[in-house]
Write a structure and sequence with these properties.
By secondary structure, this protein is an alpha/beta fold. About 35% of the residues lie in helices and about 20% in strands. The protein has 2 domains: about 150 residues, SPOUT methyltransferase, trefoil knot domain (Alpha/beta knot, 3-Layer(aba) Sandwich), CATH 3.40.1280.10; about 80 residues, tRNA(m1g37)methyltransferase, domain 2 (Trp Operon Repressor, Chain A). The longest helix is centred in the C-terminal third of the chain and has 19 residues. The chain is elongated, with a radius of gyration of 22 Å.
Length: about 240
């Protein structure tokens, strides 16, 4: 995968892209990530990338020329329709299923904006996806892009040490992930659930499924509104209600 990041602040990405899993993924050539300062593609002597909005109003708007010129400079195969992603609070709320969709692409382009907003022609004629990581506003799109890139890269084959880790993550199955425990089996007066040390794999998997459903029911019941529960899951939910 190749990831191209258009930003006015490329230095913000240095630690994020060179450390931890993303750094190792680049060392293994699983992914290649580079930043482009789109100020370098401004077409005026002052290298300005923003201007006041037509019709008046507060704030400044990113001009179309630097963004289009920067994207045109990228080594993209347009016959494959690469994804050009605008980080924007007006965009579709980001989900794990969206991460899985992006992880199947060969090229991803992220546009990180600042100021009041983007010239609408960027949205209409360049962008394929608009993504928001939540219902709040950041000073720019860089931090949001970092979050999306991290969530995508970790899904690529060979990035995680255990390929099953991503499969069982929260949201991957439509539910939050079940609780985890490790050694020691007893710490202070708190013990690991007996089923996890029983060696009975079928019972362990059922416990994990039930506790995953319980955690979702307690913390994100909205996720269950979109899920068709099985008979066993419906019975478990009834038990949760009684216990609560």
């Amino acid at each position: 995968m190749r990831i191209h990041i258009l930003t006015l602040f490329p230095n913000m990405f240095e630690g994020v892209l060179t450390d931890s899993m993303i750094g190792k993924a680049q060392e293994k050539n699983i992914v290649n990530i580079h930043t482009v300062n789109f100020r370098d593609y401004a077409n005026n002597k002052h290298m300005t990338v923003d201007d006041s909005p037509y019709g008046g109003g507060g704030g400044m708007v990113l001009k179309p020329e630097p963004i289009f010129n920067a994207v045109d400079s990228l080594p993209l195969d347009w016959t494959t329709k690469p994804r050009v992603i605008l980080m924007c609070p007006q965009g579709e709320r980001y989900t794990q299923s969206k991460a899985e969709s992006l992880a199947r692409e060969q090229d991803l382009v992220f546009i990180c904006g600042h100021y009041e907003g983007y010239d609408e022609r960027i949205r209409e004629h360049l962008v394929t996806d608009e993504i928001s990581i939540g219902d709040y506003v950041l000073t720019g799109g860089e931090i949001a892009a970092m979050a999306v890139i991290d969530s995508v890269v970790r899904l690529l084959p060979g990035v995680l040490g255990n390929e099953l880790s991503a499969v069982s993550d929260s949201f991957s199955t439509g539910l939050l992930e079940h609780p985890h425990y490790t050694r020691p089996a007893k710490y202070r007066d708190w013990s690991v659930p007996d089923v996890l040390v029983s060696g009975h794999h079928v019972n362990v998997e059922e416990w994990r499924h039930r506790e995953s459903l319980r955690r979702t029911w307690q913390r994100r019941p909205d996720l269950l509104e979109e899920r068709e529960l099985s008979g066993k899951e419906l019975q478990w939910v009834k038990e949760f209600r009684k216990q609560s």
